[in-house]
Amino acid sequence: MSETCYVIPALSQPSLAVQGDSRRFPVRRIWCVGRNYLEHVREMGNDERQPPFFFAKHADMVAADGATIPYPPLTNDLHHEVELIVALRSGGLGIAPGQALDHVFGYGVGIDLTRRDLQMASRKKEQPWEIGKSFDQSAPCSALRPAAEIGHPSRGAIWLKVNGTERQRGDLDQLIWSVPEVIARLSQQVALSAGDLIMTGTPAGVAALAVGDSIECGVDGVATLQVRIGPRS
Predict the structure, then answer these.
(1) Using CA atoms, how far apart are residues 105 and 189, in angstroms rounded to an integer?
(2) pLDDT tens for each residue of 183-202
(3) Does residue 10 form part of some domain?
(4) pLDDT in tens, 54-88
(5) What is the CATH number for 197?
(6) For residue 36, how many C-alpha atoms fall within 13 Å in the half-sphere facing its CB?
(7) Other Cβ atoms within 10 Å of 111 Cβ, number
């Protein structure tokens, strides 16, 4: 069979490292859960009675551990949001909560970088959030840890420091929706698949970043991640 030819060069496959393995995890889609820690819901002035919802980032927006991420255009209010990352090895539509963890390859820690001023302006106009959430290197992610190695964490500290000062701290047991519930609910609206990442929400303490800031974050027992904010491109 002849190779497929394209009218432009074929695009590279975004991927993440897997700890202890020379093979990499190919990223298909990135799904994010909004409003999944109660204190963050409150600090953002949202209705804590409303369920979390989902939005997306593009696969090529991942950034690796150790990256220097240029301060993005169109904003003067870049915020950090540390999150547990769930990486799927399989998927489907209408996954039952009791079977959801069977689809998980592993876990990591990531940061949902957010152009907060643009996100808030979109929210006031009842417009989509993409301009605030989806931009180049807006999804830094650690190397993944296989569930076969660490199990399925449901508790453990999640934290973030900027220039050595802690800004965010919570625990996975504070998730409003658990990982199985998130997977099941998301699979009601879209067919999940191997290669999908789910960013599961952030605890309280989100705040602005500046050029030159060094960020360290982690989920205890899972992974850590370090990135730096560089000058605007």
Answers:
(1) 21
(2) 999 999 999 999 999 999 99
(3) no
(4) 999 999 999 999 999 999 999 999 999 999 999 99
(5) 3.90.850.10
(6) 25
(7) 27
C-alpha to C-alpha distance for 144 and 74, rounded to whole angstroms: 31
Assess if residue 5 is contained within a domain: no
Nearest to 197 by CA among 34, 68, 26, 67: 26
Domain region containing 135: 15-230
Domain assignment present for 8? no
Residue 45: its pLDDT value, please? 61
Instruction: Quote the number of domains for the chain.
Output: 1
Task: Characterize the bridge pairing of strands 21-26 and 15-18.
Answer: antiparallel
The pLDDT tens digits of the residues spanning 157-169 come to 999 999 999 999 9
Contact, 183 vs 105, CB < 8 A? no
Tokens matching residue 160: 């973030």
Report whether pLDDT(37) > 90. Answer: no
Tokens of 38: 């109660």
- What the block records as the tokens of 10 is 């074929």
pLDDT band at residue 128, thresholds of 50, 70 and 90? confident
Per the document, the length of the chain is 233
CA of 49: how far to CAs of 81, 114, 176, 221, in Å?
21, 23, 11, 31
Tokens encoding 233: 């491109």
Place of tokens 């929210």: 123
Please state, in angstroms and rounded to a whole number, the distance separating the CA atoms of residues 153 and 102.
14
